[in-house]
């Protein structure tokens, strides 16, 4: 079996090597980079299967944010996890707004980190195991392809991250039904606070509105969650 490639972008050498060693012992192929420039040089040749990155990279105070932005421009489906000492709501919301799939602080245990990585990979693997006849989900002008992780609205592509795709899929599977934030987290295999779920939903709406300014089909239900109203 080909081992999943994980890139760790962390400026502290001891911490970086600790993550790499643990990931390697869990069966992953892990490579570390100390700076945004080093990582980008490597990614120009080949993107990894998943990226773990810190926000502050030596003197590059928000280097992780900039790297996340650049990676999202290259791939909408590359799983990205922030792993940082910065635990403010502003930083976590900023990370999700830039398209991260998860945001963790460095006090998380290594087994918990592995669990979150595994959850992201399982989402992708589950889609690839679907039968072709089950890969398409169509609701009016919306077409979701579980096999390719793609979404189209009125035949125009909507560029969603892995997390955003699964959240949208959870809503579209049950049109008219309110999906709570807990249900969206469960179906997207993430564990975040309510503000982060709200940020993901806002990003999904904005992406649809980029291709259709009249898009209004994701409805907020006060105190309950969200629903697809088509």
CATH classification, class level of the largest domain: Alpha Beta
How are helices and strands ordered from N to C? EHEHEHEHEHEEEEHHHEE
Q: Quick check: average pLDDT?
A: 88
Number of helices: 8
Assembly status: single chain
User: What's the architecture of the largest domain in CATH terms?
Assistant: 3-Layer(aba) Sandwich
Q: Number of folding domains?
A: 2
Poorly predicted tracts of residues: none
Ends distance: 42 Å
List the helices and strands and how they pair.
Elements: E1 5-9, H1 13-25, E2 29-33, H2 36-43, E3 50-53, H3 63-74, E4 80-84, H4 89-97, E5 102-105, H5 110-128, E6 136-139, E7 142-145, E8 150-153, E9 156-158, H6 162-173, H7 181-188, H8 194-211, E10 218-221, E11 225-228
Parallel strand pairs: 1-2, 1-3, 3-4, 4-5
Antiparallel strand pairs: 6-7, 7-8, 8-9, 10-11
Describe this structure in words.
The model has no long low-confidence stretch (mean pLDDT 88). Helix 6 (162-173) crosses helix 7 and helix 6 crosses helix 8. Helix 4 (89-97) links the parallel strand 4 (80-84) and strand 5 (102-105). The strands form 3 sheets. A 5-stranded parallel β-sheet has the order 2-1-3-4-5, sandwiched between helices. It has 230 residues and is an alpha/beta fold. The chain has helices spanning 13-25, 36-43, 63-74, 89-97, 110-128, 162-173, 181-188, 194-211; strands spanning 5-9, 29-33, 50-53, 80-84, 102-105, 136-139, 142-145, 150-153, 156-158, 218-221, 225-228. It starts with a strand and ends with a strand. The longest helix is centred in the middle third of the chain and has 19 residues, at 110-128. The chain is globular, with a radius of gyration of 18 Å.
